[in-house]
DNA sequence: CGTAATCTATACTAATTTTGTAGACTTTTA
DNA sequence: TAAAAGTCTACAAAATTAGTATAGATTACG
């Protein structure tokens, strides 16, 4: 399971990507996505530090998408908030940790199995960009009329 | 990430599946897989309650695999210990919970994306049986000589 | 210049989950 | 009947997560 903050981030980003304008108040996103205001603040700050969002302080300030929606994918967002995508620490690259349960990691079939799942998941997450998600949403909506 | 207990369970099961005999003491598995004895006890009990393992009490007792290794897959084990496989509660079946962040779940692209990942993951986990894992391990070992 | 609007930062609390362990109990066999 | 095994319940320690409080910094604009 991804963390709640990660889910908040994804929903906020999709919300921003699907609007024609590119300026958003925290309050506005909070209400539109039903995300507690204070939690959203920290989430947006993290997205800003990661270079995905930009912001302007002071009166008439707000947040904005800093990249085109096609250039933000879910793999990056999930990694940012939850770290490793793999289900097992020995099947990750950046967040690698060895485990005690296998004699030899190189021949551990459990690791091999979870590596395969990790790779498949990463591929799918990478293909989910804000742009593709917005498109999907439009399709689903027109189908449901 | 799966829980440590789940990882313990998987390693213990693979260990049992790859031995020619079918009788194991808790102590024996604990040492072979470097799993704390007491934690392993509760894990094995859970596996027994789920019908995957059987046991015999008393002197000369022990645990045994109750099903053929081809009939135990990782999807079942992961569900048993960690519940839902999906990364998001609205993309599960048995452990479903609605979320507040989307207006309409039926047209929510975030949910659609995570549903796709969940389905792919479940397919892969189902294809990982104890039998296939043991085979993989043999292959990896012969390759590494 | 001052004030209101807005984002920034840090730290704390409460809740939850996870992990491991203790310790008494039951069953079986020799 | 004693020794060897699994069974059960409950607790404690640790880690993680989520949310909130509080104060600060920055900007626009009259």
Multimer state:
homodimer
Assign an overall shape of chain A.
elongated
Report the order of strands and helices of chain A.
Answer: HHHEEHHH
Relative strand content of chain A: 5-15%
Largest interface: A-B, 43 and 42 residues
What value does the Rg of chain A take, in angstroms? 18 Å
Count of DSSP strands of chain A: 2
The helix count of chain A comes to: 6
The side-by-side strand order for the widest beta sheet of chain A comes to 1-2
Question: What distance separates the N and C termini of chain A?
Answer: 32 Å
Mean pLDDT of chain A equals 95
What proportion of the residues of chain A is helical, as a percent range?
Answer: 40-55%
What structural class do helix, strand and pairing data of chain A support?
Answer: mainly alpha
Which residues of chain A sit in consecutive blocks of at least 5 with pLDDT less than 50?
Answer: none
Describe the largest sheet of chain A.
2 strands, antiparallel
């Amino acid at each position: 399971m991804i963390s709640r903050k990660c889910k908040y981030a994804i929903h906020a980003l999709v919300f921003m990507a699907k609007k024609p304008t590119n300026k958003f108040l925290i309050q506005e996103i909070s209400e539109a996505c039903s995300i507690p205001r204070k939690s959203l603040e920290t989430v947006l700050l993290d997205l800003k530090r990661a270079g995905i969002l930009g912001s302007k302080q002071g009166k008439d300030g707000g947040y904005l998408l800093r990249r085109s929606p096609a250039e933000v994918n879910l793999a990056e967002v999930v990694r940012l908030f939850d770290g490793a995508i793999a289900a097992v620490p020995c099947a990750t690259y950046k967040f690698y940790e060895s485990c005690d349960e296998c004699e030899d990691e190189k021949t551990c079939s459990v690791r091999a199995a979870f590596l395969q799942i990790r790779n498949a998941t990463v591929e799918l997450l990478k293909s989910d960009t804000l742009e593709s998600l917005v498109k999907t949403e439009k399709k689903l909506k027109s189908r449901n009329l």
